[in-house]
User: What shape does this take?
Amino acid sequence: MAGKDTYERDNSTLAQPFDSPPDYTKALNRDALRGARIGVPWNGVLPHFYPAQSPEHLQFIMRSFNESLAVLEAAGATIVHTNFPSLPAGSHAATASSRNTYPWDNAPSSTYQYADALSALNTYLSHLDPLSTAMRSLQDIAACTASNPLEQYPPRDIFYWHAALSTTINPNSSEAWNAYQSVYQACGPNGVFAALKNDYLDALVLPSVFSFSLPAYAGSPIVTVPMGAFGEEVGTVWRKEDDPLLRSVMAGPGMTFGLSFLGEKWSEERLVGLAYAFEQRTGWRRRVKPVVVPRTELRGWRGWRVQLEELEL
Assistant: This one.
């Protein structure tokens, strides 16, 4: 999905510097990494943010990450060790007690994201074809989820939806705008963009488990491709292991994890090329067999909705 919003309601896509999206297939060049400057923001590697994964799993990810850096270098890239200026300095140095120093994990981020989510989702849902869905607001989705036995509510909760629904902050208010600017400046101009600019980089790379927060708030692109898969020796980590009804796998043998490429706004074409060149040398997408392979194209939402109703889903 790319391009400007058809109804011109989205300021973010309207700001793109081209009238129509680039042909991303032209970026698929095996030699795209040659001459590229790739930064590794080591203070963005934050193991304490992912307590569900055991030290063995994180060690496995970091070992694969270091091997991936060697692949990038062998493909002609220059690896530059750097940091995000807005985050505490040091490699892997932060502790759980310092979580509130991170811009995506503090009060301003919550203030903005709940107000924005409620407003944006309600706007989006209100413009959908009423023949394709009965969901017209976030409240509708929450009520539908809570009333469907298959959703296993309330043990499987909808905490974030309830948090958004309970917010009293107007997304267009100065309070919301100031909160957004606080997080945006830390994640964008003083985060991703600063790291790129300070060291004249084409892109940044991080393991996918650490990569998504800053680009999400900065509004910048991120391309993730397979980097490896856990081996049999690491075992399985369960969520809510003591509740058989709610058990779900957090990490385990055969589960893949990725390498993420981060860049400036509108640099998707460049990132696609870099990620493609990496994948051609590793082949992880072909080395891990998926458990389920979709074989049906969804050619019409209305038809798909009928199928769901027939299945009583």
About this structure: Residues 153 and 226 are 33 Å apart (CA to CA). Strands lie at 37-41, 78-82, 203-207, 222-229, 237-239, 248-251, 256-262. Confidence is low (pLDDT under 50) at residues 91-100, 303-313. Residues 174-198 form the longest helix (25 residues).
